[in-house]
Design a protein that fits this description.
Blueprint lengths: L1 H14 L16 E2 L7 E6 L5 E5 L4 E4 L7 E3 L8 E4 L5 E5 L2 E5 L6 E5 L10 E6 L5 E5 L4 E4 L7 E2 L8 E6 L5 E6 L6 E6 L7 E2 L9 E6 L5 E5 L4 E4 L7 E2 L8 E6 L5 E5 L4 E4 L7 E2 L8 E6 L4 E5 L4 E2 L1
Antiparallel strand pairs: 1-28, 2-3, 3-4, 4-5, 6-7, 7-8, 8-9, 10-11, 11-12, 12-13, 14-15, 15-16, 16-17, 18-19, 19-20, 20-21, 22-23, 23-24, 24-25, 26-27, 27-28
Length: 316
């Protein structure tokens, strides 16, 4: 009888490892929230456990003051908003085609910066990351890299670093940061790294072929992950000097990745895809969800996580 119970436990742990048999100290069970919109959502960020924002198509800006139980809609334009980042519940930024918007109240927004471009259409700003309330980075099409050290009053365009579409940026502190992009038939994958606050950038070998690199996340200056098209997951434990492929067992595009520590992380992507690891990515398990919409972004704090995607999808 004891042997039978033990074997049953092994089977349950194998099938439902993401629920806690792996020893994950914080167990996630994703549930869909009512967003009140059918627009596609591309970015989500929380300033604390209660105050968060989600942004997307047709000028959609959603805010919550209760951890996502209810959402309030605000609109400042018909732009498609691609990313959002808050330093405090009142100080936040969001990005669109060629524009950075800012709020100092958490509710009203104005254009803070517009990217100058020689063509008729400015490049899209695709991702943004603020390290403090003063210092932040934004990246986008045609090699756009923007940097501010005064809360966005002035944005410096670091031109000439790349000509590729840059999809993701992440800094672990003011000095150490990574930018990823490129990929496809016409562009090589691109990883840019700085260890001196962007004074100098170096290219790192991606170990990717023609996959797009969509997002990057580091938990400290040495351990990081990149996700991209065709189920690509790359990992480094030496600040990016070497990037090693991890086996995702999927071929859908992964659009975002986030980790709580060196072991516990999530990646999200096409057709409701959610992957979870409790061992730094040596094994990625697929989390079963009934949602089939593309998932675009994920934000984690110590105990809670949020995911956004197409058709107003918000998961918590």
């Amino acid at each position: 009888m004891l042997k039978k119970s033990y074997l049953s436990l092994i089977v349950l742990c194998s099938v439902f490892g993401y629920l806690g048999c792996s020893g994950d100290p914080v167990q996630f069970e994703w549930q869909q929230l009512e967003s009140g919109t059918n627009e596609h959502l591309y970015g989500i960020h929380f300033a604390d456990a209660k105050h968060g924002w989600a942004v997307g198509t047709a000028g959609t800006i959603l805010s919550t003051a209760n951890g996502g139980m209810t959402w309030r809609a605000t609109s400042v334009s018909k732009d498609t908003f691609t990313a959002v980042n808050f330093a405090t519940p009142n100080n936040g930024w969001l990005t669109s085609i060629g524009k950075v918007y800012y709020t100092g109240s958490g509710s009203t927004w104005h254009i803070q910066h517009q990217v100058r471009a020689p063509g008729p259409r400015p490049p899209g700003i695709l991702d943004m990351h603020f390290i403090t309330a003063a210092e932040g980075w934004a990246v986008g099409g045609s090699g756009t890299v923007l940097h501010t050290t005064d809360g966005g009053n002035r944005w410096e365009n670091q031109s000439g670093l790349s000509k590729m579409h840059l999809w993701g940026v992440h800094f672990v502190d003011s000095d150490h940061g990574w930018i990823v992009g490129g990929g496809g038939e016409n562009e090589d994958a691109e990883i840019l790294y700085t260890r001196d606050a962007g004074k100098q950038w170096v290219r790192q070998k991606s170990n990717a072929s023609k996959e797009f690199l969509f997002a990057v996340y580091f938990v400290n200056p040495t351990h990081g992950w990149i996700v991209g098209s065709d189920g690509l997951i790359l990992h480094t434990n030496d600040s990016g000097r070497t990037w090693v492929r991890q086996k995702s067992t999927v071929n859908q595009a992964l659009r975002a990745v986030a980790f709580r520590d060196e072991e516990h992380g999530w990646a999200v992507g096409e057709k409701g895809l959610i992957l979870h690891t409790t061992d730094g990515g040596n094994i990625w398990n697929r989390y079963p969800m009934s949602v089939q919409h593309n998932l675009q972004d994920i934000y984690l704090n110590k105990n809670v996580g949020w995911i956004v995607g197409a058709k107003g999808t918000i998961l918590k």
